[in-house]
Amino acid sequence: MFAGNFQTRQELFIVEKNKKIWSVALTSLGKMSETQCAALCLKFGERCCEITYITSSRECKLDQSGCCHSDFDYISGTNLIQRDRTHVVNKTLSVTNGGSLGVWASAEFCTRGHYAIGFRMKIEPPHGDNTELNAIAIVCGSRASDRCGDMASSGQQVWGDWTGETLCPANAFLGAFSLQVHPYSVNEDSTGANYVRFRCRYFKDEFDAVDLNYPPGYGPYGSYGEWSDACPMHSAICGLQTKVEAHQGYGDDTALNDVIFFCCE
């Protein structure tokens, strides 16, 4: 009966016939029709990405991990009911001190329904022609703050090594950032962006933010600019787009120069 209360909501869902289903522990929500099961997919939309419907037993089952999966084990006679969660970007975050060199790469996003719970960087250690920050990747998780295994990274350069992951406190997500940039100069070795730091915030909390950085929290060149705006309430960072300079051959390489992040509802 309670499932029927949600059938009037103007949201879409996708039913994929005979889809292969991830072999994880599923919690049975009881026996019901496929329509009622789809309504429950909407009801539990904040905690799950997928609900499976076992046609042979008319059971509706929930993956409570909150993680949308891409690898599946076949279960005969099962439908995957998945919310239509195309990315709804409600704000773009930028800073004013980004480097001037390079071109914007393609934007990349977490799996739909996931948000950034942490990050890692690709940094080249100091040597003859310094480039410092070469790439940024966001670590994606569910609304339940589960680590879902996917990451998103836009354009990057080839130099340097990846740092370890730095994660927000439990149930918090990336919501604002600041960029350390070494401005271009014809008279010295320029490095572009050197480091990035973030602020973590709970999804429904507008003010309680925690600063997040990978130790030591700064690079050897340039300085941090002002913080970006923050994602609105009920949203968090879900994607990014980087501005990267191509390899200059015998010229001065700077690699990553600027970045913007996208907030999703």
UniProtKB/TrEMBL annotation:
Gene Ontology CC terms: extracellular space
Protein origin, superkingdom: Eukaryota
Name used for this protein in its record: Vitelline membrane outer layer protein 1 homolog
